[in-house]
Design goal:
About 20% of the residues lie in helices and about 30% in strands. It has a ten-stranded mixed sheet, sandwiched between helices. It has two domains: about 150 residues, Carbamoyl-phosphate synthase small subunit, N-terminal domain (Glucose Oxidase, domain 1, 3-Layer(bba) Sandwich); about 200 residues, 3-Layer(aba) Sandwich (Rossmann fold). α8 crosses α9. The protein is built from ten helices and 20 strands. It is an alpha/beta fold.
């Protein structure tokens, strides 16, 4: 059973773990990529709803993980496949969620649920899967008292606590500020010859500079960017003139550090088919996205340019400095999953080091 904070109840059939959980109820319109989504730290604090009607067909392959474990609070689908069929599958979606102690809900009208979220906006919800009878009135009362998970610093709960080095013999040393990074970002940088030093999201700027990086990347992550300690760090890095690249949450952090403002979207962008227009050209790129906040374009200082705009709702999707090598994109150029149209963002960034 899923109970929204406004008292709306969706009853269905449970799978995965028998448990009670709560989180912000959000939806993803992608047809594939559920393994990557479930393991994306940006979904921490959220109950994920899939709009595609049948999920789990190709099972679970650890090679598709975007972190070391699932991060979602709960999972809601119309129907899931109990017996997947794919040569790379290691287990079913049901078994994976059960082992990860994550409750799932199926056999509900996900179309009605998503239309409600789209109309009224995303909202906290309570997900209960139990073998015993459920007292709906009790859980409605509990759901109405749910707080906003974005009121806390979610980055602090997903960021690595240690330093990790990837491709130490690489030709260019980068520091990656881990706000909940997807492994696909690291793979994309390493594939292009970079040596990546992954540091915690609250790593002080002095220690970053002690590592002598040639550039800094600010990663994706969950929650409200205004809660992140990395904003102060990036504000200090802007004075160092090191090349900077912000991705997703990192893009929002970069904008805040530059003096712009951010705001919460009504229902966010979570899919692999978001069209983005590059300003000043006629190019439109399909992008993979997962975010609930955005940069308020009108608040950008004059030394910054709008780089990309969402073709659907005209929200900001990218910024760049007029003179210095500072870049931010709201989408995921590494995809994982999704189209790789914007992989050139990594190439453009690394060209600044030559």
């Amino acid at each position: 059973m899923l109970v929204l904070k406004d008292g709306t109840v969706f009853e269905g059939r449970g799978f995965g773990a028998c448990a009670k959980t709560w989180g912000e109820v959000v939806f993803n319109t992608g047809m594939v990529g559920y393994v990557e989504s479930i393991t994306d730290p940006s979904y921490h604090g959220q109950i994920l709803v899939q709009t595609y009607p049948l999920i789990g067909n190709y099972g679970v392959n650890p090679d598709e993980f975007e972190s070391d474990r699932p991060w979602i609070k709960g999972y809601v689908v119309s129907e899931y496949t109990r017996f997947p069929s794919h040569h790379s599958s290691r287990k079913s979606l049901d078994r994976w969620l059960e082992e990860s102690r994550i409750p799932g809900l199926c056999a509900i009208d996900t179309r009605a649920l998503v239309k409600r979220l789209r109309h009224y906006g995303v909202i906290p919800g309570l997900l209960v899967v139990s073998e015993k009878p459920i007292r709906i009135a009790t859980f409605i009362k509990e759901a109405r008292a749910l707080p906003d998970p974005n009121a806390t610093n979610l980055v602090a709960e997903v960021s690595s606590r240690d330093i990790h080095i990837y491709n130490p013999e690489g030709k260019a040393r980068l520091v990656l500020i881990d706000c909940g990074v997807k492994l696909g970002i690291i793979r994309s940088l390493v594939k292009r010859g970079a040596s990546v030093i992954r540091v915690p999201g609250n790593f002080p700027v002095e220690k970053i500079l002690d590592l002598n990086p040639r550039a800094v990347v600010i990663s994706n992550g969950p929650g409200d960017p205004q809660k992140c300690r990395a904003v102060e760090t990036v504000a200090a890095l802007l004075k160092e003139n090191l090349p900077l690249l912000g991705i997703c949450l990192g893009h929002q952090i970069l904008a805040l550090a530059a003096g712009a403002r951010t705001y919460k979207l009504k229902f966010g962008h979570r899919s692999q088919n978001q069209p983005c227009l590059e300003e000043g050209t006629s190019r439109c790129y399909l992008t993979s996205q997962n975010h609930g906040f955005a940069v308020e374009a009108k608040t950008l200082p004059p030394e910054w340019l709008l780089w990309f705009t969402n073709a659907n709702d005209r929200t900001n999707e990218g910024i760049r400095h007029r003179k210095k090598p500072f870049f931010g994109v709201q989408f995921h150029p590494e995809a994982s999953p999704g189209p790789t149209d914007t992989g050139f963002i990594f190439d453009l960034f690394l060209e600044q080091l030559r």
